[in-house]
Amino acid sequence: MSREKSEAIIYKLIRYADSSAIGLAFSKEFGRIKLFIPKAFTKKGGVVCFVHGNLDFAKKSSDLSKFYSFNNYTDFYHYLNNHEILIRLHLVFEILDGLIEPELSDPTLFELILKYDDENFRRLTPYLMYFILKKAGVMYDLTSCVSCGSKDDLFTVTDQGLYCSTCSDQLSQTGYCDKESAYIIKCMGNSSLYRNIAVTRKQEIQIIKALAGYSSVVMEKKLKSLKTVLEII
Question: What phi, psi does 222 have (nearest 5°)?
């Protein structure tokens, strides 16, 4: 058993007994970690989800690590005060939890999550969903039709991937997105291009539905947080 410290976000608490919990955290150096957290629901030793902080824990040979402490970084308390960010974090971490293997370090993904602010949440959430799918090795090709391989007129976004107009007509495929939203999804493969794109509420909803639908197919289960996200945003 080795004692470690890492920047982390505790994103889920599952009540275990009395005030204890099984905590799920995503850390910068060690990826996803499962922790036993005593006094997780007490005022003195309580833990707050979705706040960036420093996690002190001990890695064990089993999948359950020992929790020592978690020191919140107060600069990130704005996550808790902005419901727009908070509800999107529930969705992002549900996908991350289902697709990213435990203890698979990804500092880039960790830093991306920390980029949330009051202005960029509509653009960042779809990109994080794409990034997680890409990291997990399951994201479909953004440059060619999933059916025929054509690279032209790719504007039908489905649970299986992108279809060209010819294949979508022949196969009666119905897409989640209009052409503008489909174009935004295709731009995700180029981070410098995507960075300068503005995403409207309508476009975000369409893209979230599309990527969440695909995530559900890959994960073979529905995303519990999706309904709430779509109702609120």
Answer: -75, 150
Q: Which helix (H) or strand (E) holds 112?
A: helix 107-113
- DSSP annotation of 11: E
Residues of the chain above pLDDT 70, percent? 99
* Among 182, 175, 178, 99, CA closest to 142: 182
Look at the chain and count its residues.
233
Q: How far is CA 105 from the centre of its chain?
A: 15
Per-residue confidence (pLDDT) for residue 115, from 0 to 100: 94
Are 26 and 46 contained in the same domain? yes
Q: Which of 30, 45, 76 is the last residue of a domain?
A: 76
Instruction: Examine the fold and report which residue of 45, 76, 107 is the final residue of a domain before the chain moves on.
Output: 76
Q: Which residue has the tokens 């060690």?
A: 30
| Torsion angle defined by CA atoms of residues 187, 157, 123 and 222, in that order, rounded to the nearest 10 degrees | -140
- Which backbone phi and psi does 28 adopt, to 5 degrees? -70, -40
